[in-house]
Amino acid sequence: MTAALAKLGAVLDVLCPMHVILSGSGHVRHTGATLQKLCPGRRLTGMAVFDLFEIRRPRDLRTMDDLRRAAGSKLHLQLRDPPRTAFKGVVAPWGDGAVINLSFGIAILDAVRDHALTSADFAATDMTVEMLYLVEAKSAAMEAGRKLNQRLEGARIAAEEQAFTDTLTGLKNRRALDHVLRRTGRAGRPFALLHLDLDYFKAVNDTLGHPAGDHVLQRVAAILVEETREKDTVARTGGDEFVLVLQGPADPGRVARIACRIIARLEQPIPYDGRVCRISGSIGISLSGSYDSPDPGRMMADADLALYTSKRQGRARHTIFVPP
Questions:
Q1: Residue pair 28/53 in contact by the 8 Å Cβ criterion
Q2: Residue 83, preceding bond cis, omega within 30 degrees?
Q3: Which sequence spans correspond to the domains of the chain?
Q4: Quick one: 3-125 is in which CATH superfamily?
Q5: Which of 64, 110, 156, 199 is a plausible cystine mate for 315, CB 3.0–4.6 Å?
Q6: Per residue in 15-27, is it b (16+ CB within 10 Å) or e — as a string?
């Protein structure tokens, strides 16, 4: 490299780090560091300029003389290698060769993304640097907004879950049950409704205290979840009252078997703090198939009537309501 070329290259490296110095034959003698970064793994020095770039406009530039005659005019170029980065350029004659200074124009954001460019890849006075700062600030603001939205969405979901969840047992609450019944009624899907009331629960609270009663309720909740499917609904609607909505065809025999399993499990002793809690359960059942036009409100009332029948007949049993 001649002394003159070295001096020019040193100046251009600072002022416009995306430049090409060409010889009279149109071969690259020197490039700025940023342009070299756009072509990783390639030695640009010695390449013919028309092998490095495709000049899209003006279309009639095919020789070095053509380039020199285009001095001062805006060029539209792009690299021939992927990702075929696009540039704007201007030519200035230098000796028997030329200097082409390049910029990205409106393709700046694509170039920054494709080549991981930073402010260090541009001249300090290049307005592109200001644009990069704005892009970075916008990206940071959008990321902060995204994270805030995620937190707000998480808080909304948590609040909604809390509003529809019984805090002691983790089951659905009465509000959630009403929502499920309305949705099931609108959909016209068959279902069975089971109203469960615990027998002898008051005795547990009176003899062992409310912490023991809470423990029993949590154990009952676990049993009900284990005996139902994921698509079914289990809700605690009162102190020791639970409602189950079993989705799908409500075959009386199948529903009766589920009720019997639940009652049998509730009769098993529940250990608590070295003592034993003993309860049972009475269940009233209404089946959507028993009605010409099932109404969840009426089915709930009928399940209550069936529950009272189970209580009167000795508890620890189930009764299926049969409409008159």
A1: no
A2: yes
A3: 3-125, 128-163, 174-320
A4: Haem NO binding associated domain (3.30.450.260)
A5: 199
A6: ebbbbbbbbeebb
Higher-scoring residue by pLDDT: 271, 59: 271
DSSP letters for 51-112: HHEEEEESTT--SHHHHHHTTTSEEEEEESSTT--EEEEEEEEETTEEEEEEE-GGGHHHHH
Best CA proximity match to 70, nearest among 54, 57, 83: 57
List, in sequence order, the alpha helices (H) in the chain.
3-15, 33-38, 49-52, 64-69, 108-115, 127-163, 174-187, 201-208, 210-226, 252-266, 296-312
Query: How does DSSP classify residue 7?
Result: H
| pLDDT exceeds cutoff 60 at 160 | no
- Say if residues 286 and 309 touch (Cβ distance below 8 Å): no
At residue 174, φ and ψ (nearest 5 deg) are -65, -35
Report the amino acid identity of residue 207: T
Q: Which tokens belong to 247?
A: 């989705």
pLDDT in tens, 297-313: 899 999 999 999 999 99
Q: What's the angle, vertex CA 267, arms to CA 262 and CA 270, rounded to 5?
A: 110
Fold classification of 174-320 is: Alpha-Beta Plaits (3.30.70)
* Residue 240 is a catalytic residue: yes
Confidence of residue 154 (pLDDT cuts 50, 70, 90): low
Place of tokens 């912490």: 211
Strands of the sheet with 53-57, listed across from one edge: 28-31, 19-22, 97-103, 86-94, 74-79, 53-57
- What mean pLDDT is predicted for residues 160-174? 83
**Catalytically annotated residue among 197, 199, 240, 302:** 240
- pLDDT tens across 4-24, in order? 888 888 888 888 888 899 998
